[in-house]
Amino acid sequence: MELALSICLGIGLSAACGFRVFVPLLAMSVAALVGHLGLAAGFEWIGTWPAFACFLTASVLEVAAYYIPWLDNLLDSIATPAAIVAGTIVTAAVMTDMSPLMKWSLALIAGGGAAGVIQTASVALRGTSSLTTGGLANWAVASGELAASVGTAIFSMVLPLLTAVAVGLLVAALLAHYWRRPGSPTQTTGSLSHP
Fold first, then answer.
1. Dist. CA 46–CA 26, nearest whole Å
2. For residue 35, which phi and psi values (nearest 5 degrees)?
3. How far apart are the first and last CA of the chain?
4. Cα separations in angstroms, 191 against 91, 181, 182
5. What is the pLDDT at residue 28?
6. From the CA atom positions of the chain, what is the Rg in Å?
7. Where do the H-state alpha helices sit in the chain?
8. What is the pLDDT of residues 88-118, one digit of tens each?
9. pTM, whole model, 2 decimals?
């Protein structure tokens, strides 16, 4: 049961990385410092004061930068791969008593995958906002992403199973939306096979 909860915790935290890369790492650092979160061997550094200071600084800079129109779109080119890496790391950091092969496989597929799907959807939403409003509504997108990242990180630590189910449903809905849109691989294949 503890292993299942740690996997659920990892998935929830990785999803939060899809909204903001450093906010979930900051939340993990705080939780580890106060003794609420146990970290896997080799990841204890996340729960140290120097790591807390680094994550706090990075979180403040990341959050502030997303409120600057057009800089937010530029940051997305960096944030997308960073979110996948962060999602993989946070998932691996909370999985204890598991073989390294299984841990890193799950961390990459479930953690990196969840962070990547959510970050990609976030990039698309911000791009649409930039094109339709000239970037004027991007502050609302940035605020929503920040709230989602903080909320998901907190709920992951308090209710990991429920959060993992919610993240799974969100990822499934985003993937279904992608596959249903015109021009997606299934739509293109379908149009070729049915003239």
1. 9
2. 85, 10
3. 52
4. 39, 13, 10
5. 96
6. 17
7. 2-19, 23-33, 49-65, 71-94, 100-106, 113-133, 138-158, 160-180, 185-193
8. 999 999 998 888 999 999 999 999 999 999 9
9. 0.83
